[in-house]
Design goal:
The structure is a single chain. This protein is mainly beta and about 280 residues long. The chain contains one helix and 21 strands. The chain has two domains: about 110 residues, Immunoglobulins (Immunoglobulin-like, Sandwich), CATH 2.60.40; about 140 residues, Galactose-binding domain-like (Jelly Rolls), CATH 2.60.120.260. The strands form four sheets. Strands 11, 12, 13, 14, 16, 19 and 21 form a seven-stranded antiparallel β-sheet that branches. The N terminus is likely disordered.
Amino acid sequence: MKKRVSSILAHARLLLLCVFLLPATGLAVPVIQWSNKKLTLPIDKGDGVVITLIFKSSQELRNVRAWPTPALAGYVIINPATFDVVAPGTMYEIELAFRVPPDAQPGTIEGAVHLRTGPRTYASPLPVEITIIEPPGDCVVLVNPSFEEPVVSWPYGRFNSIPGWDGPIDIHPDLPTSDGSQVVDLNQDDFGYLRQIITTTPGTLYTVSWAQGVNLHCAQFAELSVDIDGSSIGIFDSTVTPVYKSATFVATGTSTELMFRSLTGGCGGATIDDVSITCQ
């Protein structure tokens, strides 16, 4: 009995000695703190996002590599991926560039980003959850959405109707385009418009998108209104460099009139190109 008690006391002394010596000998476990507790990222197929984070360590680390777990390996590029020295308490910036391939299957991917030296991984990792989303397709098929018909000669062609659309407009092959080689100027010599009747489902939310610029031969600034069945759903301005715009509406009938209406007079109004409509 005395021998057993002595053995227990000896093991207890050894355990206490290890506990007291642990900080002094530098064997405490390094802890990594991240600026985000977790990354939750919805990303469309074929799309990506870049996230910049900050981390710091409780201890000095050497020859450190930022490493994604295998589930994330095909979806993220880390920059910088290596650090020669990580000083204790110092904040370091790291960039995670996520990219989902166009052929990826919709769903959720869970993983983490670790810091490690050789085979040793440090606590705590950064949890990452990627939700791969099927992007909405064009649920309304527009006729002549980029105004490539009819083909016009330089400097422009003047029309009161074109395939799929009607309204007093000019088509220009000599202005900046976003898709194809022609854009529509909503003005001929003054306020003009362009409209198309589309098939819709009542109660459905639709998003209209288009590239908008200006006829820089006549103006540096222009405005237009997007009208649905005769009512404006938004007023949008434009400058010489085309920029994509969007507006939403809820359909009330099985057919809907979409109109782009110029709000700027004169020989040059807003230009439009690459019109599309998606639904939710």
